[in-house]
Design the sequence.
């Protein structure tokens, strides 16, 4: 006879990592990565952008454009000047590709870059009236909550869904789509090429992770990220073995592991985020965990939660951090 | 509020007679079930421990017994630090909820009463959200912030219900309605708080709300055990009062019993034990509602039997169900609260259907 939890909360659970957390985060505001001179790579990125659009590729400001998003095709008549972003990752991307000046409001968890106009808008429980109050000519979301797209479409406001990618490659595609939607195609291509280069360099900087058993912990109920998630793809690219994969038969990307299985899998590296209410020391002291290699060798790393849960321009930082962490791991022979 | 359909005449003596006739086999049977459940639970899990090795370790764990051990040190750690505490915790939580359910059903003379009736779950949930999400730190000595906050929230919600009903333990219906209102209030506050949380923390809270028996070693077990023993003793001692209350308040008074005071004590003990269970395991549905009914089918309507047998059977049920939570989708985990209803509900439906008559 007790009252049940309302269902929308379960939806929040299913949302996965699409909402990064508040607080934390670095404060250096080198938001717009200046384009670098990697012409060859930029061609490749332009191709990515082309794949996400219907119209022929052209320079900035060629409107109308049709953008392919997770929610289907969206046609944008004119270059948007009043963008509302309800996704922290999208916010970071918009500022990195030079569309920051067109952004009028971002959601409460969009804490980076500093100049982003953070409001109390929510991407979780989006309020159509509050969003419409900013008179946006483009709304960027990540995952359609509460039929937001349908409501905004009623109001003739185009919506681009920058859905959580499950691979790094898909992340570039999403960036390219935002570049097209905002009229910054060339700049986006340059940014992607630049980021791609940095990420590749970071991957290349360390090649000793082959076969390394990794456990990426999201919280102390043992939710983890498998290779079917964006962060999981980063581990895959290193050649690491993700102990959560076996538990992710459904391919959701974020399975909940059972504690016994974690201990039995014997990860050599445990990664937690700085947004949980416990520390690496607490993890090491968990009863029964003393047998785990990562605990015995002190290989428990804390990463910035915002950086590790967003698919944005700070990806190179994440890859570098993980490369550092993995290079610390001493892999005993036959480990 | 449904009342009992067949008015008891001199039913008490009759029932008591029948009850005690059945009591010994029932007690032995239920205890055997509990032991079996615990053994099964200890030998099954995501980490494939060899059954023989587990049994050797368990026997070797008895004082003064020396058996050759065959488990590796990792397997030992899994057994002693994770699997065994979790099994014992499951049995204790099941026992707590089932006992509390029996107590509430007796107090409210309502077969639909369950341990979460007076806002316990909503109060504990709010406490958990505040502790996990907003860093409300009520930790006290060895007790962590979350269980403490859940416990305090649960007790506050029930206290609120009792105050709204002006402490009227003479009138269970008012108390029940006050509980519903209080639960609604706490639930709404909890939902509001959840929407203000970021994704990591809200997932932590939800994971807890779904009910989970994941323990970190023996801490939660030692936390819950005193409550089970204390509240269990109080409930058992007052089971006779519940038997008399079944006859109606006037009859109870004529026998020299204060219905209001008996209800207060039973509600207090049931609330404490539920709050303690919820604080370490979240919200596990169904066990508290159904177990007392199953026991009634076995031994009749005497609370002197229903209370202890509910504890034993509830413990066996939850320990068994938790095997499923740990192994069905291993190495992933299922929330145990999902399986309790999934397994329990159809089983209960079959039992009801075969009985045809209600409770």
Sequence:
């Amino acid at each position: 006879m007790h009252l049940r939890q309302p269902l929308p909360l379960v939806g929040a659970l299913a949302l996965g990592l699409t909402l990064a957390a508040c607080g934390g985060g670095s404060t250096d505001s080198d938001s717009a990565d200046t384009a670098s001179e990697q012409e060859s790579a930029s061609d490749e990125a332009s191709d990515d952008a082309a794949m996400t659009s219907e119209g022929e590729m052209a320079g900035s400001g060629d409107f109308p454009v049709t953008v392919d998003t997770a929610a289907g095709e969206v046609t944008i008549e004119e270059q948007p000047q009043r963008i509302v972003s309800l996704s922290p990752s999208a916010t970071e991307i918009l500022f990195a590709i030079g569309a920051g000046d067109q952004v009028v409001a971002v959601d409460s968890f969009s804490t980076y870059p500093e100049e982003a106009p953070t409001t109390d808008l929510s991407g979780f429980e989006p309020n159509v009236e509050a969003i419409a109050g900013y008179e946006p000519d483009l709304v960027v979301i990540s995952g359609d909550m509460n039929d937001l797209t349908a409501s905004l479409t009623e109001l003739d406001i185009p919506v681009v869904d920058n859905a959580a990618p499950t691979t790094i490659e898909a992340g570039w595609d999403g960036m390219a789509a935002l570049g097209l939607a905002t009229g910054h195609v060339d700049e986006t291509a340059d940014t992607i090429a630049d980021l791609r280069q940095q990420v590749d360099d970071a991957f290349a900087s360390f090649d000793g992770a082959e076969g390394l058993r990794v456990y990426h912990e999201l919280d102390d109920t043992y939710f983890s990220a498998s290779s079917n998630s964006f962060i999981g793809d980063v581990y895959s690219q290193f050649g690491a073995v993700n102990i959560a994969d076996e538990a992710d038969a459904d391919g959701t990307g974020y399975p909940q592991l059972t504690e016994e299985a974690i201990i039995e899998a014997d990860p050599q590296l445990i990664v937690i985020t700085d947004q949980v209410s416990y520390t690496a020391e607490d993890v090491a002291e968990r009863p029964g965990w003393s047998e785990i290699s990562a605990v015995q060798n002190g290989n428990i790393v804390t990463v910035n939660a915002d950086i590790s849960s967003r698919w944005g321009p700070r990806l190179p930082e994440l890859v570098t951090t993980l490369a550092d962490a993995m290079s610390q791991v001493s892999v005993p022979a036959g480990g | 509020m449904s009342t009992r359909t067949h008015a008891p005449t001199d039913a008490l003596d009759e029932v008591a007679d029948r009850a005690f006739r059945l009591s010994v086999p029932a007690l032995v049977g239920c205890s055997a079930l509990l032991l079996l459940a615990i053994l099964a639970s200890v030998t099954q899990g995501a980490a494939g421990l060899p059954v023989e090795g587990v049994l050797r370790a368990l026997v070797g764990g008895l004082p003064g017994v020396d058996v050759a051990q065959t488990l590796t040190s990792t397997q030992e750690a899994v057994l002693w630090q994770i699997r065994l505490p979790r099994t014992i915790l499951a049995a204790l939580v099941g026992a707590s909820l089932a006992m509390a359910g029996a107590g509430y059903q007796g107090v409210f003379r309502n077969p639909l009463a369950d341990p979460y009736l007076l806002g316990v779950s909503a109060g504990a949930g709010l406490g958990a959200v505040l502790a996990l999400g907003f860093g409300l730190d009520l930790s006290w000595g060895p007790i962590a912030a979350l269980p403490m906050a859940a416990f305090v929230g649960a007790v506050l919600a029930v206290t609120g219900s009792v105050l709204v009903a002006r402490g009227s333990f003479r009138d269970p219906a008012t108390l029940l309605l006050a509980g519903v209102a209080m639960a609604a209030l706490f639930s709404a506050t909890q939902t509001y708080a959840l929407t203000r949380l970021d994704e990591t923390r809200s997932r932590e809270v939800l994971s807890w709300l779904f009910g989970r028996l994941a323990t970190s070693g023996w801490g939660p077990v030692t936390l819950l055990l005193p409550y089970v023993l204390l509240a269990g003793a109080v409930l058992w001692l007052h089971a006779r009062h519940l038997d008399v209350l079944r006859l109606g308040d006037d009859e109870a008074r004529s026998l020299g019993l204060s219905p209001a005071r008996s209800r207060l004590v039973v509600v207090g003990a049931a609330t404490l034990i539920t709050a303690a269970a919820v604080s370490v395991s979240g919200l596990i549905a169904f066990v508290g509602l159904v177990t007392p009914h199953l026991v009634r089918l076995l031994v009749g309507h005497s609370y002197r039997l229903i209370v202890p047998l509910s504890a034993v059977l509830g413990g066996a049920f939850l320990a068994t169900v938790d095997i499923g939570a740990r192994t069905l989708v291993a190495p992933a985990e299922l929330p145990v609260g999902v399986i309790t209803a999934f397994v329990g509900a159809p089983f209960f439906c079959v039992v009801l259907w075969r009985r045809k008559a209600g409770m």
User: Anything to note?
Assistant: Chain B touches chain A through 55 residues (CB under 8 Å). The CA atoms of residues 77 and 183 of chain B lie 41 Å apart.
